[in-house]
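Please, structure for the following, as tokens.
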Amino acid sequence: MPYVIEDNLTDVVLERWNDLSDPRLRQIMQSLIKHLHGFLRDVTPTQAEWATGIEWLTQTGQMCSTRAL
């Protein structure tokens, strides 16, 4: 595994999904990673902004789960 730096981070993360047996899931996850990494490079969130985003995603997932119904 290469030494991970900002310049190769996205490529290293994408590579970890290469062996996924479901080609459609691999395509979805790799596209999500590319877009998410691009978004983060574009807006460069602070730690507090990042934490707020993660909390929002967590709450969204909890509302969408069968447990929340």
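The mean pLDDT is 91. The chain has three helices and no strands.
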